[in-house]
Amino acid sequence: MTEAYLSLGSNIGNKKKNLLEAFSRISKLGIVKGSHVYRTEPWGREECPEFLNACVFIKTELNIRELFDSLCSIEEKMGRKKREKWANRIIDIDLLLSGQTIFKNTSLEIPHIYLRERNFYLRPLSEIAKEERDPVSGEKIETLLNLCSDKKKVWKAGNILRLKV
User: What is the arithmetic mean of pLDDT over 103-112?
Assistant: First the structure.
């Protein structure tokens, strides 16, 4: 079993609908639990519209590579076009953390390379994983949030992501 934490983000189109659709598609890969939805200032490109972001915990039978490939496929099927770095996007799904796994190749780095530097990752992640530890620093996610130097605004903007019953 693979357990992982993901970040979902959208800054074009119906952002909330995009997050919910991605969450629904991810739920087909395993058991999921979501954070609240957060409104966030753009990171990397100031001229971009604000994002909606959330984090998701997944427990799946897929191995980490299969999970990553499945997440890329979801992005593509939802209409994400790979363009320049930090461009506007319908959906962005980042694999943030998977237990104490440390892994790096040309297409994937776990934990995410910017995990410790972005409030829009850490705030929703601390909601569902505050006791989890970053395998690089050994710090709890909640501690990383408190130490983060990112001053971009991140505030709750919606309910917890969950599946409709």
Answer: 93
Map residue 2 onto helix, strand or coil. Answer: strand
CA distance 85 to 113: 14
Q: Can you tell me the distance from the alpha carbon of 107 to that of 165, in angstroms, rounded to the nearest whole number?
A: 36
Q: Which domains does the chain have, with CATH numbers?
A: 2-157 (3.30.70.560)
For tokens 């659709």, the residue is: 21
Structure tokens at 2: 């693979």
Q: Calculate Rg over the CA atoms of the chain.
A: 15
pLDDT of residue 158: 84
- Per-residue pLDDT tens digits for 138-165: 999 999 999 999 989 999 998 998 876 5
Q: Give the tens place of pLDDT for each residue, 28-68.
A: 999 999 999 999 988 777 778 999 999 999 999 999 999 99
Task: Return the active site residues.
Answer: 80, 89, 92, 94
Buried b (16+ CB within 10 A) or exposed e, 102-125: eeeeeebebbbebbbebbbbbbbb
- Residue 85 is predicted with a pLDDT of 65
